[in-house]
Structure formats: structure tokens, C-alpha cells
Write a structure and sequence with these properties.
17% helix; 5 helices; 2 domains; four-stranded antiparallel β-sheet; 360 residues
């Protein structure tokens, strides 16, 4: 939905400070929630220091407003949805989906309402997620949310976990782009990176290809058991490509294994994300001829089969990421030694896209 009202102010010039304090390029679409998480009851979220309230109308349409009542600046998310408007819990002021104040109970129906409003944001639902455009609404049609067509593909089996870390988003991106920390995940990871073969850089993208060793290869339904039974595993070499497609991340290990990370930078010391893993069943020709209802059932039954493995990977990574943030907070001028050229390119990309000011 494109808002009628916006208090958007153009950001300052490119960020020149420490990368761990870099802001975001607000003129892009960001994942802010799963679609299933938002119903008629208001839900509070935050995108780079900007509080947002999400809710649905009676017709199921998504709305996104600044989470501050124009009256006393309290959280609108503490209120309720009434007649497709959001009603502040404090004095009952109501705001429509475009952010306009449409009702103030104690003024009565005959009084002209004050010309006040809260900021509204363009918002769409795609691939099972809610995407928000926190920048200039006039630019929301110039870009699209990250493509993730596997979400609706009946051949793709998904598992996903929530990632929350008390750290700047750049630490998460660097963790995802640096494939040389396989020893951290020795119990859970299905591959190890041997060498970095290529780094390709674009205006808003850095892609790195590693040569990796893995035991995972989909040949039949029993292949999934390799995730749980070590004796069934056989090592082989495959390319592993990881891509920072600002502001999100994706990877591919051979033909059978894909992971996406949809990232919501909350503030300088907080980042939320969803990690989504896909295993393809496209090689099973018999499944392609099965009735759609059967394929949907299979996709649903197998969904989240790798959730526990993902959760363990996330848990281990978050510990390291938060250690990095703590070290920066203690000694912000101390420079770590970086030898992975992919990480240096990622840092340059974060700096190019960053701005000097918060969204609000």
C-alpha cells in the first residue's frame, strides 16, 4: 500500500564514520515480519530506530504506521484496531491506514478535527513475509523485495528460524559471507569451505564463490537422513556461492541446498533476521506428476525438517557476533585484522549504502 501521508526527510550524504555505526539505505524494501504474525491485533516492530505498528483491516489488507500517537507520542501498538483504524489506548484517538487522524472521542462528531497525522509506510506481502519501505515513498516503485521464489515452489522444502542478535547488522553480514568458520559448526554444518575462488562486486551486491566439501546431495528421499545419520554421509566437492544482495543474503551449495537470510536492522546494536533453508526435490520426477494436493501435503509435512540444525547454527553464530560487538563497544578504535577479501568488499558496500542519520 502506498501511503497518503509521509514525514520522510531526505537523508544526509554518504556515511563516513565507523562501519559499526553505519545506517541503512532506507530506499529499499526490508523484511519486517512474517505474514502469519500479523493479524488485526496491532504488532510493534522497529526498522533502524523507527518504531512501526503493523495491523490488518477486516479485509486482510496490511497497514504500517509510525508507532507513535500524534497526540502524546505514546505507542499506537498498545491500542486496538477498530473499524479498520488503529485506536490509541490512551485517549482513543483513531488513525486510518494512511496515518490521518479520523476520530477524537472527546471532541464529538460536530467538531473539526485537527490537521494531524502519523507517518505511514509502503508495505507489501511477498513470499510469506511482510516488507516495508522506510524511505521516500515516491521511490517505492523503483525497486522490489528480494526474490525468493522457492517459498511457493512445491519442489522446495523449507525450514526457517528467527535470528536475533544484539549487534550491528554488518557483523551478521560478515559472518554469513565468511565461510571459513566451519570449525565453529563442526557438529551441525553439512559443508566445510576449502578456498575462496572468486569475488564479484556490483553496485548493491557482493558475491563470493568458495570451493567446499559436503556430504549432502539429494538423490532420493532417504538423502535427508544424511542430516541425522553420520554413517550415511559421503564427501564430495561442490561450489558454494554466498551473495550479499543488499540488504539481504543468499547462498547456494551445489544444486540441492539454498539458504536465504532476510535482515531487519533494528538499530546500531540490534538486528533481527529470518534464516530460511531450502532443499529441492525437483530431481524426483515421480513427484512432479503427482496431484498438486499430494505435493502440497508433502511440502507441509517435510517443512522445518532442518529447523533444529539451523537453530544450532544460529545459536553458535550469535555468540560470536555478540562477542565482536562487545569488543567494539569496549575498544572502538581497535582495528581487527581481516584477510578475507570478500569481507572487505562487503564493508565497502555497507559504507556506500549507509547514511548519516536515522529514519526519524
Amino acid at each position: 500500500m502506498k501511503p497518503e501521508i509521509s514525514t520522510y526527510v531526505e537523508p544526509h550524504a554518504q556515511f563516513n564514520g565507523p562501519i559499526r555505526r553505519a545506517g541503512i539505505n532506507c530506499n529499499l524494501w526490508y523484511m519486517i515480519a512474517m505474514s502469519s504474525e500479523i493479524q488485526q491485533r496491532p504488532v510493534r516492530r522497529e526498522i533502524w530506530k523507527q518504531p512501526v505498528v503493523l495491523f490488518r483491516t477486516r479485509q486482510g489488507e496490511m497497514r504500517a504506521l509510525e508507532d507513535r500517537c500524534a497526540h502524546r507520542l505514546v505507542r499506537l501498538s498498545r491500542g486496538r484496531v477498530k473499524d479498520d483504524n488503529i485506536e490509541c489506548a490512551y485517549h482513543g484517538w483513531q488513525f486510518n491506514g494512511a496515518g490521518r487522524c479520523v476520530h477524537i472521542p472527546h471532541l464529538g462528531s460536530r467538531t473539526t478535527l485537527p490537521n494531524c497525522a502519523v507517518r505511514s509506510f509502503p508495505v507489501v506481502e511477498k513470499h510469506g513475509f511482510v516488507w516495508i519501505f522506510p524511505g521516500n515513498p515516491a521511490l517505492s516503485d523503483t525497486t522490489v523485495p528480494m526474490e525468493m521464489n522457492e517459498w511457493d515452489d512445491l519442489n522446495e522444502i523449507s525450514s526457517f528460524v528467527t535470528l536475533r542478535t544484539r549487534a550491528h547488522f554488518s557483523y551478521l553480514i560478515e559472518n554469513l559471507m565468511d565461510m571459513y568458520h566451519g570449525s565453529l559448526h563442526a557438529q551441525y554444518q553439512v559443508w566445510t569451505a576449502e578456498s575462496l575462488k572468486e569475488v564479484v562486486e556490483g553496485e548493491k551486491q557482493v558475491s563470493a564463490t568458495y570451493q567446499a566439501t559436503t556430504y549432502y546431495e539429494v538423490k532420493d528421499l532417504g538423502s535427508i537422513l544424511q542430516l541425522f545419520i553420520p554413517s550415511l554421509r559421503k564427501l564430495h566437492s561442490v561450489p558454494l556461492t554466498v551473495t550479499y544482495e543488499y540488504p539481504n543474503w543468499k547462498s547456494a551449495l551445489g544444486e540441492d541446498f539454498k539458504i536465504y537470510c532476510l535482515i531487519c536492522p533494528v538499530n546500531e546494536r540490534s538486528t533481527n533476521a529470518y534464516l530460511i533453508h531450502y532443499t529441492s526435490l525437483a530431481k524426483f520426477k515421480g513427484l512432479n506428476n503427482a496431484p498438486v494436493a499430494i505435493r502440497r501435503l508433502l511440502k507441509r509435512v517435510l517443512s522445518n525438517v532442518a529447523k533444529k540444525l539451523l537453530a544450532n547454527l544460529v545459536r553458535q553464530d550469535v555468540i560470536m557476533i555478540e562477542d565482536e560487538q562487545a569488543a567494539f563497544d569496549q575498544e572502538p578504535l581497535r582495528q581487527p585484522f581481516e584477510v578475507n577479501r570478500a569481507i572487505r568488499r562487503v564493508q565497502e558496500l555497507v559504507r556506500r549504502q549507509a547514511t548519516d542519520r536515522p529514519l526519524n
